[in-house]
Every structure is written in structure tokens, then in C-alpha cells.
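B., you asked whether I could sanity-check this one before it goes into the benchmark set. Here's the sequence:
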Amino acid sequence: MLTSYFIRALASLLDHGSQLTNALDDNTLPNKFQQTILLLVESIGSNQKSILNLHESIVSYLMPVLLAKINEDHPDQKYLCLKIMTDILVQLLDDRSQR
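And here's what the prediction gave me:
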């Protein structure tokens, strides 16, 4: 089950994974780890029910980390972060317009 704690843990993993990538000379493993976490976050971002139920945690914890990752040098991760943020924002705004 998806919980607020899980969202915070994902945000923390993304944030600390960036620090690990910067600390190591060989970025292959940390980049694959980051990519896997981002794919997991992407799957959450496509589920409107989860986004609406956990919107406070997603906006408070996950979105700032995704925004910070947009400024990193990895083009694939940058694109994926932009896509995830767009997916989440569209679903949040879509829900607000129906009220």
C-alpha cells in the first residue's frame, strides 16, 4: 500500500542517490539506481487516485527533489523528472478544476 512514509522514503532515496553519484568516480551503478527509483516514481505519477490521496506528501517531499534533479547533468533523468512533474501537476490541476 502506498503511504506518505513511502513517498518520503522515495524522495530521500532520490536525494541521497544524487549525493552518492557525485561522490563516486564510476557513476554507472548510482545512475541505474536513480533511474530505477525514477521509474517507480513515474508509475506512481500515472495513478491519479494515489496522487490525490497523497498530494500533501508528493508536493512537500517528492516535487522539490524532482525539481532539484532537473538541474543535474544527466539528460535522461532530467527528461524523466520533467515528465513525472508534468504528469503529477496535470492530475492535480485536473482534479481542482472539477470541484
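One thing to flag: The longest helix spans residues 75-97. Otherwise nothing jumped out at me.
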